[in-house]
Amino acid sequence: MQLTFKFRVDDNPGDTAIGTGNNVPSVRSVKLIKDTIQRLCGIRSIPYDGTLGHRYYVNLLSDIIWQVFHPLLRFYPEDAGAELNEARQAKHWLEELDLELLMPVVRLHNPYFFIFEPALLSSGRACMPFCWFTRGRKMYTKAWSLRPVTREMDCMLEDDLLVSFKNWSSSEATSGLPRACSIYGVERELNGELQPWTLTNPSEGNQWCVRASGAHVSAMPLWLYCDNTSGNLLKKWNKHNSFLFTAAGLP
After folding, report:
1. Got the DSSP string for 84-150?
2. Which residue ranges make up each domain of the chain?
3. Contacts of 139 (CB under 8 A, 6+ apart)
4. What is the C-alpha separation between 5 and 137, in angstroms, rounded?
5. What is the pLDDT of residues 130-181, one digit of tens each?
6. What SS3 state is found at 19?
7. What's the pLDDT at 84?
8. Distance from CA of residue 132 to its chain's centroid?
9. pTM for this entry
């Protein structure tokens, strides 16, 4: 049996169309569902006006990363010993990269621990983490001991980190210790000259903690390269250049 129905095309109740089928939604309903799905799962396109008067659109990079391959990404370097199968296991990422370009934070339960912020260990010693990395299934930190400042140590996060910079002033474990924001300088050598501390604002902590306002922060290394993609047989410059990237943290 064939059924004939009427459905609304838009907001104007007078506009109708004829079709066949059962329980077919209105165009307005379909558009509402599409807009809802796009808002929840879609990739936003940002319009721009070019200098020559043309309009073009750019897909938002953060949406592409989050929707497409965020679950697969690895953000921390890995100490895998002699094994080298992934970019994150390479010496450059773990030992040679600028410290400020590395993953700046780890989250243990509720508190966030950022690099370049004083932290208290369960042993009662204070340290200044400057690098997070994995070893097997465990997370570790490279840290400077705050007394003496020249000593570097490894400590396992789950077992050793106790009080973060943010909770320093409210923790009983830090009573009797100097304030975490009382950083007057860096002594590179014992009895050496005191040099200015420039990696953070001592009263605020890591800049990414301030800028994130409680949100999680990730650092994602990219390999970027460019290709003119012309394929011209003549030696003529082609204006079309493609900038391409690969996420280094993809397995």
Report:
1. --SGGGSHIIIIIS-GGGS--EEE-SS-EEETTS-EEETTS-EEEEEEEEEETTEEEEEEEESSSTT
2. 4-68, 83-214
3. 76, 106, 132, 133, 156, 157, 158
4. 61
5. 999 999 888 999 988 876 555 667 677 777 899 999 899 888 888 888 888 8
6. strand
7. 93
8. 14
9. 0.73
Q: Which two tokens stand for residue 134?
A: 């994995």
Can you give the pLDDT at residue 76? 94
Lowest mean pLDDT among 8-22, 36-50, 198-212: 8-22
How confident is the model at residue 1, as a pLDDT? 43
Distance of CA 241 to the CA centre of its chain: 27
Q: Which residue has the tokens 């459905």?
A: 7
CB-count burial class (<10 Å; 0-12, 13-18, 19+) for 207:
middle
- Residue whose pair of structure tokens reads 């009080």 in the numeric block: 163
The Cα–Cα gap between 197 and 116 comes to 10
